[in-house]
Design brief:
Elements: H1 7-10, E1 13-16, H2 32-36, H3 39-45, E2 49-52, H4 80-92, E3 96-101, E4 124-125, E5 145-148, E6 153-156, H5 171-186, E7 191-194, H6 236-248, E8 255-258, H7 265-269, E9 279-280, H8 283-286, H9 292-305, E10 313-315, H10 324-327, H11 333-343, E11 349-353, H12 373-379, H13 419-423, H14 429-442, H15 444-448, E12 451-454, E13 460-465, E14 469-474, E15 480-491, E16 500-504, E17 509-513
Parallel strand pairs: 1-2, 1-11, 2-3, 3-7, 7-8, 8-9, 10-11
Antiparallel strand pairs: 4-6, 5-6, 12-13, 13-14, 14-17, 15-16, 15-17
Bound molecules: alpha-D-glucopyranose and calcium ion.
């Protein structure tokens, strides 16, 4: 009954925003050779997979999420040969590389968009009463349609107008993406994170979405409508199954990790059906408050809803959201440590965002330095730039990210939390993250064991993993009894390790052998 090690179930995935890891050529932009030069850090940290945000050529209206060529590398980031070197060097360290695939839309500069022979590759429609064809809204705000004067028709864009949506009812689009998948899999890419995986297929008749009313909350509506026809269609599952079949033709099987922004657990669980996504992000958890009762409830709901074939993914930060050390912990290092113990001990695959291992926080970006057009044009204050700033490798000019004197593409934040100084300090957040990864590798219970909630006092979340591993998380500022006793294998309060304890210190997270 011993299942062979499946890296994407039992390992840890690290998300890198390639423009912000390391700049090898002094243009202020992180690149693939820079990342390759820092793979030792990831090996030392003990991660198994590396997901790169989009690296394909792009006019950068949405920094790579507007692709103009699906089978090449953006010159700012390097070349195909640089990517091959990265994949080989990562492989030598036991790390698999996942790329980001953006199938919902292309750049408006992609040659397909202006190719008359590929008209049906995009969603074109006649207007209604002098306005757009229906009431769909862009996820970045405003109508999801723009009028193209030359074509005399409207085209759909669920994001920026420079990101026209592809028409997934077109056979040509489906066949083209089959070859794109194969192109990268043949180059040793271990799989894809699928951008907006739940949105790609739209209602064929382009029916209006139901308008939201007072009964709707942030969880059930976007920009005043409920997503019923504009996304999360049943037909999306055909596409996912088609891709999974392609994954299976490669050895080892390639992996699909969906960006499934679905805030209803029952609906989300459908993406875990056999033969579909291997992994799917749980944004219900990500958007929870840092409250043990709420977080526990959402994990329990996931445990209940997932089919046997499903495997959860837990993440706390990414390139679109405020980083968890800021959003959940307000920079309080005790809470940051507690959150890391939680993230790395739940049943499922953890995805760490670069900098999480340091407790890196959001960086204030002055208005004159903002780069994210979504922030610039639509949201004003809610730019995503503060969570995409350069990795602080050391406390020196350029932060070890770029050469001293070079202006990085986004400002470098506070250097007090940096890799070099935390590596030298066994009590650091960085060492805690590394030790948690190592403990996962050592304990089959943490990698494979079932999850079970145990009774616990107020403010405490206590659960068992497998047969003999307990995880206790005290979210309160007071000591709390555990109701059980055991030997501490790892604690966010490092001096407690090795002891036998029956209680939690304030804001302590620990792993016990029962
Ligand atoms: C996803 C990405 C986000 C991007 C959007 C459009 O939500 O994570 O960064 O802007 O899709 O591609
Ligand atoms: Ca560079």
């Amino acid at each position: 009954m011993l299942r062979p090690f499946q890296w994407w179930r039992e390992g840890v995935i690290y998300q890198a925003y390639p423009r912000s890891l390391a700049d090898s050529n002094g243009d202020g932009i992180g690149d693939l050779p820079g990342l390759t030069a820092h793979l030792d850090h990831l090996e030392w940290l003990g991660v198994d997979g590396l997901w790169l945000n989009p690296i394909m050529p792009s006019p950068n209206r949405d920094f790579g999420y507007d692709v103009s060529d699906y089978c090449d590398v953006h010159p700012e980031l390097g070349t195909l040969a640089d990517l091959e070197r990265l994949v080989a060097e990562a492989g030598r360290r036991g790390i698999r590389v996942l790329l980001d695939l953006v199938p919902n839309h292309t750049s408006d500069r992609h040659p397909w968009f202006s190719d008359p022979a590929r008209r049906d590759w995009y969603v074109w429609a006649e207007g209604r009463d002098g306005g757009p064809p229906n009431n769909w809204r862009s996820h970045f705000g405003g109508p999801a349609w723009s009028f193209d004067r030359k074509a005399g028709r409207w085209y759909l864009h669920q994001f920026l107008p420079e990101q026209p949506d592809l028409n997934w009812w077109s056979k040509g689009v489906r066949a083209e993406f089959d070859s794109i998948l194969r192109f990268w899999f043949e180059r040793g890419i271990a799989g894809f994170r699928i951008d907006t995986a739940a949105l790609i297929v739209k209602d064929r008749e382009l029916r209006d979405d139901p308008p939201a009313d007072e009964s709707d909350s942030w969880w059930t509506q976007r920009h005043g409508i409920r997503i019923v026809h504009s996304g999360n269609r049943p037909e999306v599952h055909d596409v996912l199954r088609r891709w999974r079949r392609i994954c299976r033709r490669f050895e080892p099987e390639r992996v699909l990790l969906g960006e499934t922004f679905i805030l209803d657990m029952e609906q989300l669980s459908r993406y875990f059906a056999p033969g579909e996504l291997h992994l799917a992000f749980n944004f219900i958890f990500v958007h929870s408050p840092f409250d043990p009762a709420v977080l526990r409830g959402r994990v329990e709901a996931s445990e209940e809803a997932l089919p046997a074939s499903g495997w959860p993914v837990w993440t706390a930060s990414n390139h679109d959201l405020s980083r968890f050390p800021t959003r959940w912990c307000q920079g309080d290092e005790r809470r940051i440590r507690l959150a890391l113990v939680m993230l790395l001990t739940l049943r499922g695959t953890p995805v760490l965002y670069y900098g999480d291992e340091l407790g890196m926080e959001d960086v204030a970006v002055a208005a004159s330095r903002l780069r994210d057009r979504v922030g610039l044009r639509e949201f004003g204050h809610s730019s995503r730039d503060p969570v995409r700033t350069p990795m602080p490798w050391r406390d020196a000019p350029g932060a070890g990210f770029t050469r001293a004197g070079v202006e990085p593409w986004l400002p470098i934040g506070d250097l007090s939390r940096n890799v070099e100084s935390q590596r030298a300090d066994p009590g650091s957040v960085l060492h805690l993250t590394r030790d948690l990864n190592a403990l996962r590798r050592r304990l089959a219970d943490l990698r494979r064991g079932a999850y079970a909630t145990l009774p616990a006092p107020d403010g405490v979340w206590l659960f068992r993993r497998g047969r003999r591993t307990l995880v206790g998380l005290n979210f309160s500022e007071q000591p709390r009894p555990l109701g059980v006793a055991g030997q501490v294998l790892l604690s966010s309060h490092r001096s407690r390790e090795g002891r036998r304890v029956g209680a939690l210190e304030p804001l302590e997270g620990l792993v016990l052998e029962a």
